[in-house]
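User: Sequence in, structure out. Go.
Assistant: Echoing your sequence, followed by the structure tokens.
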Amino acid sequence: MTKSILLVGVGGQGTILISKILTVGLTRMGYQVKMSEIHGMSQRGGSVSTQIKYGDDVYAPNIGLAEADMVISFEKSEALRALPYLKKGGTLITDEREIYPMPVLSGEQSYPHDAIETLKQRVDNVIVIRAAETAEKLGSIKAQNIVLLGALVKAMGLDGVDWKALVSAMVPPKAVEMNLAAYDAGYNME
């Protein structure tokens, strides 16, 4: 059986790093894993998404509409944008953070401040966490991705590998301690 994880965010939030950690961890758990990255103007705060499929036989990473078992969103309006990809009965984890894209900043569009309420109306399994806020309290908003990783591992029951060892190996040495605290915070967040 194949499972699918769609990660969505804005450039610079660490979407690619968390995807690489997940890919290595899932491989160590004995799964076949395929990953695909989409960088949409990521250097300028544009959307970034990563698709991961894992299971016994995985042939391609692409996730079609209504196929994702899990959507992880680094920003709540990105969660709305990714909603069509979540399968019925799937789980959505989102940070409550708001990042305004250029069309909002220029006044061309309005920001969906009610995104969380909309998500909860449309999805049975929505987990809203304060990943960016928690990471900032730990020392750097850059650890937001690792807070989300901890929440994802717990939500999907992926305890078959030492995720903290993977985090330690894949973040800069000076940031290891903070990122381990971020992982624990995400894993233990209610």
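User: And one key feature?
Assistant: The chain has a mean pLDDT of 92.
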